[in-house]
Amino acid sequence: MKIVKNILTKNDCYKAGRTIAVKGLMIHSVGCNQPSASAFLKNWNRSGVEACVHAFIDGNSGTVYQTLPWNHRGWHGGGSSNNTHIGVEMCEPSQIKYTGGASFTCSDKAAARKVAERTYKSAVELFAYLCKQYKLNPITQICSHHEGYLKGIATNHGDPEHLWKGLGMSYTMDGFRKDVKAAMGGSTSADTSDTSTYTVKKGDTLTAIAKKYDTTVDELVKLNNIKDKNKITVGQKLKVKNSTGASNPEKIAEDGTWGPDTTRRAQEVFGTVADGIVSNQMQADRKYLGACHSSSWDFDSTYTGGSSLIYEIQAWVGANQDGTAGKETIKKLQTKLKSLGLYDGAVDGSCGTGTVKGFQKWLNKQK
């Protein structure tokens, strides 16, 4: 899943500046034959638009475009859902043509289904990510706009179920919730109380992972429905049985240098893709990141959306969430580490060895 931050700063909803305590997630579809998220990003980023969601999912690429901070009050569901729910819109195929209400015709169902499948899969990944971030139960705290109406918390709409049904697809909201749970490392068909999740690292093989967890390759393949046992990818989540005697995650060196090992461990802890890279950081902030090694930090001269890891760290420490590790974010991190007794240096916004050591100590305490 690729998330691009494109906050609609000119939209009146954003300018209202109200935040919410996130209690649920609501999935929508746009209600018109527009697969491109860019059309909405352009048309909604202005004053006078009486709607704003937290993200659009592009139908052509599956890319998620975040348009509001996740804890910002959106204008998406109507009723009380705006006060409690994050709202996400899936773009719809260009091949459909609305004929009235939720009814439509379709000129090419095969092509339209590809678009709907693409947005569905990205929505599952995004909702799994948000459920983890806000500690939500995917079975009880996810609904569609239509279900929101039936609950009395949203306006009368039929999305997105009308789209799936009209295209003759098997998707349902119950199935969606189960898929989100599965993407979080849960199971839709069996008890997972005896399993935990392992994130694939660079250089990993199923053979090595099986050896580490005292199991077999065949057991891993069966447990994770792997089609090609010779093909796993960095960042992939694998279920492993706790009963096999799996050990706690390996500790990283508390050496005060933020390199690939520290990044990867942080990504595992915060639930982002574990590729060992802090991406899309501002070159102007590099002066504050003295103990952050260039082998693990990617710098650019312009803002390109920031890093999902930094975004998660900012949420943890209570900093403004823009995905970039600037001076104010480092100050918040230092303050947090001080409160935990892991850092005794100055709160100066400079990420030196003492700050990194404190963070590494905290990471090593996490399961």
Q: Characteristics of this structure?
A:
two-stranded antiparallel sheet, Membrane-bound Lytic Murein Transglycosylase D, Chain A, 12 helices, 6-stranded mixed β-sheet, 367 residues, 34% helix, 3 domains, Lysozyme-like, alpha/beta, single chain
Q: Quote the distance from N terminus to C terminus.
A: 25 Å
Order of strands across the main sheet: 1-4-3-5-2-8
Query: Main β-sheet: number of strands, strand sense, barrel status?
Result: 6 strands, mixed
Assigned CATH superfamily of the largest domain: Peptidoglycan recognition protein-like
Shape: globular
CATH class group of the largest domain: Alpha Beta
Q: Which CATH architecture of the largest domain is right?
A: 3-Layer(aba) Sandwich
Poorly predicted segments: 187-193, 243-247
Total strand segments:
12
What is the number of helices? 12
> What name is given to the CATH topology of the largest domain?
Lysozyme-like
Account of the 3D structure:
With 367 residues, this protein is α/β, with parallel strands linked by helices. It folds into three domains: 3-183, Lysozyme-like; 195-244, LysM domain (Membrane-bound Lytic Murein Transglycosylase D, Chain A, Roll), CATH 3.10.350.10; 260-365, no CATH class. The protein is built from twelve helices and twelve strands. It has helices at 12-16, 37-44, 109-134, 145-151, 161-166, 173-183, 206-212, 217-224, 260-270, 308-317, 327-339, 353-365, and strands at 3-5, 24-29, 55-57, 64-66, 85-90, 96-100, 103-106, 142-144, 195-199, 237-241, 278-282, 297-300. It has a six-stranded mixed beta sheet with strand order 1-4-3-5-2-8, with helices on both faces. It has a two-stranded antiparallel sheet with strand order 6-7. Strands 9-10 form a two-stranded antiparallel sheet. Helix 3 crosses helix 6 (173-183). The longest helix is centred in the first third of the chain and has 26 residues, at 109-134. The model is unreliable at 187-193 and 243-247 (pLDDT under 50).
